[in-house]
Every structure is written in structure tokens, then in C-alpha cells.
Amino acid sequence: MTKIKSIRTRVWNWTGPTVPPQGNFCTNASDALWDKGDAMASFRFHQWLTCEVEAEDGTIGIGNAALAPTVVKKAIDDWYAPLVIGEDPFDYAYIWEKMYRRTHAWGRKGIGMTAISAIDIAIWDLMGKLVNKPVFKLLGGRTKEKIPVYYSKLYADSIPAMQKEAELAQKHGYQAYKSRFGYGPKDGMSGMRENLKRVEALREVLGYDVDLMLECYMGWNVDYTKRMLPKLEKFEPRWLEEPVIAEDVNGYAELNAMGIVPISGGEHEFGLIGCTDLLRKGAVSVLQYDTNRVGGITAAQKINAVAEAFQVPVIPHAGQMHNYHLTMANANCPISEYFPVFDVEVGNELFYYIFKGDAEAVDGYLQLDDDTPGLGIEITEEHIANFEVIE
Ligand SMILES: [Mg+2]
What we know:
Elements (H helix, E strand, L loop, with lengths): L3 E11 L32 E9 L4 E6 L3 H16 L7 H11 L1 H4 L3 H21 L3 H4 L8 E6 L6 H12 L5 E5 L7 H19 L4 E5 L6 H11 L6 E3 L7 H9 L5 E3 L5 H10 L5 E2 L3 H4 L1 H15 L10 H9 L6 E3 L12 H4 E2 L8 E2 L11 E2 L7 E4 L1
Parallel strand pairs: 4-5, 4-10, 5-6, 6-7, 7-8, 8-9
Antiparallel strand pairs: 1-2, 1-14, 2-3, 4-12, 11-13
Helix pairs in contact: 1-4, 2-4, 4-12, 6-7, 10-12
Bound molecules: magnesium ion (MG).
EC number: 4.2.1.90
Enzyme class: lyase
Keywords: Magnesium, Metal-binding
């Protein structure tokens, strides 16, 4: 039996070139404030946390977190690492409960749960490496030959620019695409028309034989969404994502109950109980927890079971290997979100610059290797000149 010897956390702060996003490229929760400053500052994140859990025999499991990395690092270093060091990694469920219960007063949502997630993902990677099996094999094995993915980009831009991006993406064989709305309540009727024109323009290029998902990133409210849903219906969106802020669960439920367009969400929800509440209230027709926030792979597997019982499909937020392994091992996870490899823009792309081994989509699918142990990623120093690394 090998025990956990140490935990190393590093914040990777991107200092390299970034593509500046155009105005109105995605609505977000700060829009309601009529901010005069940079309202998108809450959307862009150019930092990432890596969390390496090392066993006594020198094997290292890798976890990560994208939410408030410098604060999550502090939480791990000061609070969670001492709870985990000395434990047997195969006692993962016990370790999870220990982290969760010892910090329950402040840790069960937000920063605390993100820290738990990073450590838990690293422990699963470590277990896989110790028994020489990919994580999806530890989770029950392959439920699909390969994983269909949806192209997740298409930020709001000029109509010709969005149509061009959709045309280029189409050449790669995707069967599903997600686009972002650029306008919300503060933009009034003219903004509504701008939103609708872009959905229509995308359907013009993509046709109706592929799925089109629409993302609000919490930038709308219930009233605005109620007015938009009937106007969107004719474009047959697969879902409308996070129309309102994450905490307005009743708002989600009300919109979903309208039955016009399926409502999706959950990427800013935490834990088994939080996600179960979304399901029980009928708040989402598609659940999109983010494994590196929701409580890691240990929590995600429990949530998958509950969602399956509710017959609500789970499509984890973001690309990344921890999500793909869960998707591979669960029949109720039909497809994965996929951020195509691009220059650094909003920050979704950063993990391609920190890790190597992330699966890349080919003809609209990605594959996991049966023989690569753990999650299959390594930290690469290839782009280190473009990072300030805080240890
Ligand atoms: Mg989203």
C-alpha cells in the first residue's frame, strides 16, 4: 500500500499574447449592473491551478482547477493538503468525505469545493497510474466506441464573421455547435433582434440536420428569457444554456417548465445535493456540472447516478480529460463539450498550453486510449516562457 506523501500546487498565470475579444461577445452576470468598466473581466480567466498529488513511490496524480486559482491554491495548501497527506489514495471516498466534512462550515460550495475537486481529480489520476488503467476503466469502462463532441465557441461577432467560423468548423465534421449571445436585457428590443439575427444566420450556414446550442452565461433574466424563448423556438435550439444566474434555481425551473426550448445549466452548481436540487425541481433538461468545481470525479459519479434516475442527460461543462473519462464511462452522458484549439482568448484554451495529452477531436469525435493509465495528461513546460508560475 502506498500513501499520499505530498501535494504540490502551482498557479499558471498566462502572460503571453492574447486575442482581444470584440465587444458584446458574450453576455454575463455583470451585465445587469450597467458596468461602465470592463464587464467581461468576470468572464475572462487567464490563470489555472495545477494540483499534483504524489504517492510514496513517486507516482504523481494531476488535478486542476480554473476557478479563482490563487485562492484555491491557498485553500489547498493551508486546509486540505494536511487532511489528505498520509492517506491511502484508494480510500478516495473517505478522503473526499473528510475534506468535505472538516471544512463544511465554509467549504461546501465555491472555493472549498473547487479545492476538493482539484485534489479528488488528482487522486483518481493517481489511482489509475498505480493500477496501470485509464480512469474510465475504474469508473465502469467504455459505454461508447468514441465520444461525439460539440464545437463550443462561436462567440457573438459580426454576422459574416460568425458564419465564416461556422463554415470552417463544419469542415471538421462536427454534428453539434454552441454559440454565445452578445446581447441581453440592457440592450432592449434592438439587442433582441441582434441576437435573433445571429441564430438565424448560423442556421443558414449549418442547416437543421445538426444540433445548435445557445449560451447566455447567466447574462439574461427570467423576464427577458420568457420573451426570447418563443422567438427562438423556430430555430430548433438543442438547449438554452444558463439564461439566469446560477442561484436562481426557481427561475430555471420556471423557464424549463414552459417547454419551449430545453434549459441547461449546472456548471456553477456545487456538490451532490446542489445538483440533485436542480434535478428535483426540474430546473434543467440537461445537467452540465463542471467536474473541477462540482466535487471532482467522486462527486460527479454520484451525480451521474442521480441524473440517470431522473432521466436527465449529463453533459459536463468544458472539455478536458476528467470530463471525457466520465462521459466515456456513463451511458447517460451522450456527448462532450469541446473547446477547439485556438490562440488564448477568453482562457478556455489555456489547458492546451499547460497540459499535453488532451484528446483532440477528429471528424466530430474524440477517443480515449485503453492503454494510457490515469487521465492521460502531463504538465508540459513547452509554453512556460508565456507563464508566470506561482508556487
Ligand atoms: Mg456554459
